[in-house]
């Protein structure tokens, strides 16, 4: 066994079932392990390395900032977080941004914003947040409560109260919840990522937006995985013709450094006042400088490329031997296979391709700029591994 694996199992808390390779370096969509073996990366560290490994533009943006100053705390003004917030607001129509360090924290902030808004506008008993069954919103005690999957709850009860769950794509179920609870917010992922790469249908998302508007309930879209170009638009809600009150994002925004962002719309733009929320690392200059370079590269041309690569993957996989179905949007794709997904993933690793799991599916989250020749090569290897 490698020294790294030995040390890891001895000293690192046992929360991850890691694949049996030690990744040492990478460039773009090719990663190299400690033995010098190369892999085409279709996972990007779970949709984080938006432009692949050690992307030079991103490295330059981060390095330039690191050479100036790495951190100041939020007791002082800095340029990178202000620049990033400006670009995010101008590209989306949101009014203000709160920066944190992860998806879970971005969601915590959204839930706090919604509860404070509901308390001030409807009454203190309007605190319940409706989320979807099979959703995933994070690992903190509150975002676990928001996550509509009992498997994640059971060892950590009691969770934060004030959450209820409705079935995805079931408008009647949502209407009932709104009738029977005093609701502060509806929170959902337009494509359930951890839940098996399941896009919500347009009618349901539109109905949720209408109910929210009519009842003065806040609509929160969790864009932690779907955001930052992943679905072929800058944010996934843009595929649905709606305008949420709050969106949260993280993963791909930082291009590989930790960052979370909660974007606040018209209704909640002034909900926070000094002291009501905060984060020591939030808005870190190096993370924000990197994120700014990422967001500025997600333009129409890049998004057209994302959609073309997506079409290629769908058409290559649909109907192929051993593949039952393909779901997803843009470069966020789930594959239902006849063979066990875990076995396929291990076969791919052996043959130099990294893919991951979502529930019982094989999940693909390649870099938004993965070169077509590498993508094609990786998809051929994946198809072979799926064959029965
Ligand atoms: C990954 C994920 C989270 C949690 O993000 P962390 O950065 O791990 O806290 C929340 N919501 C969705 C939709 C995610 O995919």
Discrete helix count: 13
Order of strands side by side in the largest beta sheet? 4-12-11-10-7-5-6
How many angstroms does the end-to-end distance come to? Answer: 31 Å
Averaging pLDDT over every residue, what do you get?
Answer: 98
Commentary on this structure:
The protein has 388 residues and is of the alpha/beta class. Helices cover 38% and strands 19% of the residues. It has a domain at 58-295: Type I PLP-dependent aspartate aminotransferase-like (Major domain) (Aspartate Aminotransferase, domain 2). It has helices spanning 3-11, 44-47, 56-66, 79-92, 103-121, 141-146, 150-153, 171-180, 202-215, 285-297, 300-317, 341-350, 372-386; strands spanning 23-27, 30-33, 38-41, 96-100, 128-132, 163-166, 183-188, 191-192, 198-199, 218-222, 246-249, 260-264, 323-329, 332-337, 353-354, 356-358, 361-364. A hairpin with a 2-residue loop joins β16 (356-358) and β17. The longest helix has 19 residues, at 103-121. The protein starts with a helix and ends with a helix. Pyridoxal-5'-phosphate binds at residues 102-104, 107, 136-138, 189, 193-194, 222, 224-225, 250-251.
